[in-house]
Write a structure and sequence with these properties.
about 575 residues; alpha/beta; 5-stranded parallel beta sheet; 4-stranded antiparallel beta sheet; RNA-binding
Length: about 575
Amino acid sequence: MKAKQYFEEMLRSALTERALPWPEKAVIEPPRERKFGDYSANVCMLLAGAAGMKPRELAEALAADLRTRADQLERVEVAGPGFLNVTFAPGFWHGILADVQAAGAAYGASDLGRGQRVQVEYVSANPTGPLHIGHGRGAALGDSLARLLKKTGHQVECEYYVNDAGRQMRILGDSVWLRLRQLAGRQGEDLEDFYRGEYIKDIAAEVYRQNPDIFEQPENTAIDICFSHAVADILGGIQKDLADFRVGHDRWFSEKSLVQTDGPGALSKVDETFADLLARDLAYEEDGALWFRSTNFGDDKDRVLRKSSGELTYFASDISYHHDKFQRGFDRVIDIWGADHHGYVSRMQGAVEALGRKGALQVILVQLVSLLKDGEQVAMSTRAGKFETLSDVVAYVGTDAARFLFLSRKSDSQLEFDLELVRRKSMDNPVFYVQYAHARVYSMLAKAELAGIRPASPGPAAYAGLAGVDDLEVCRLLERFPDVVAQAAEQLAPHQVSHYLSELAAALHRYYSKHHVLSAGPEVAAARLLLLSCVAATLAAGLDLLGVEAPERMDQVVEQTVEDATGEAAP
RNA sequence: GCCCUCGUAGCUCAGUCGGAUAGAGCACAGGAUUCCUAAUCCUGGUGCCACAGGUUCGAUUCCUGUCGAGGGCACCA
């Protein structure tokens, strides 16, 4: 049983006996300072009024209750304004090792989600060019969230919304067609808004190679060919970049599928959504346009769904898209967007409310990433910037380092990504610090194996060899992992996992330098190996939640990044 | 003008539903290896938690306002 749970149960029954309620704002947590014990509760301050006692008096009374009934608690103390601090018996902490070993890679898993169906939609960049580094942050976050939610008992599906309809797509087709004509030495003036990247020229050349007769086609057909080739090509590139970044979506949802009809007279999904909104008087026609009554949901003006020109706005297909999500049975939908869309959040949430699913949509905004090299800003917007794209950055620093950095900050604050710092394989780079801790344990296990020493099985004999304060300290940290996972999932905040891992790695390194394992005598050595292999298992389980590898040897990591980097010389 | 996010050590950032003397890494200085990987460990100090009020037993945390940074406010995408 978890320490927090145990303490809470004991406390609850003691309160019940005194006819006191469990206060809403009760908190049980490890106190900041070790000297205050393992866990601390604030209930006495909250209940003093109801109990008609001073906080400290109540605390003393409850402490006495706990001392008689809670046999796992070694000490129960009252401190400060009325905190109830408890210290668990060593045997309790040792029991954690049995838990970790039994669970293995599943350590930290829970059934918090109770099978709730959750969809995570992320990246969803328009297929008009390669992914840049900001998309990488969203990708790492979405993927890690999905892992966290799965681990906590949710049924998760990841989706990428492909904006393959609408104006931008037309411009994309036009852009390729223009480059193609220029390539063939034909006329073609630069247009006001079109895509200028080098990759457009590459696509044009490829289209020409595959369709040498393209100039004999009617222009509409030619543009169609350009367009579909461009989307396929760019989307293929995006998929590859994501795969290299260890990110996979279960489904790629086409916007076009919302707009298209099955046959003549049939309604598209968007039409169905419109009909639904009109029937409930949540939409209306005015000035030749179709409007959504977003003012009913707190917006300051109504928004257009279909322009008077007949074109749909993005908002229209987005509503329809979310309508579709809920029809597919998701209990909860999480969208990850760039921070530049934040004005859109309340509107979309209003729309979801209109669909009768108030509160079922959570939007996470990912703040900007500023790319630095040796402390200097790397221009992101210009065509010349070599490190604009995610794939360039990943090639230079490696997937593990990039992911770990992205996931070590909360998503709503701006992030500095210094290429040289992230690339460095040293202690200022926390990812290697954590990976090294994992590899260190494996190195010891291998050495021990040669010496004929194997990790002990959890049990009294092993625990006898782990009675020191440092041993218990490590056990305490291991015990916290399931709480960290649960909270990170609840708050949709994977960075809490990476911070925990740094802490656990630090504990491992400290332990390593203080306590020699293999020369400690066979029994103590076996006991310590048990402890350390539990640390490794927990590190691996945590790294897995971040999508970062847990190497058994560090030279593997070095090889991997060096290899990645050789293809791309530094600018 | 209105709205959103952010403001914590020299730098990059944590800080749990409001808890006890506000933390980590980096940078800086010194030390540790006959022994399991020194990609490591140990020892040093630094804060008007942007500012001003409010809520209460208690505020970095919640509320209001001010200042500062970024972003958003279309029949754009």
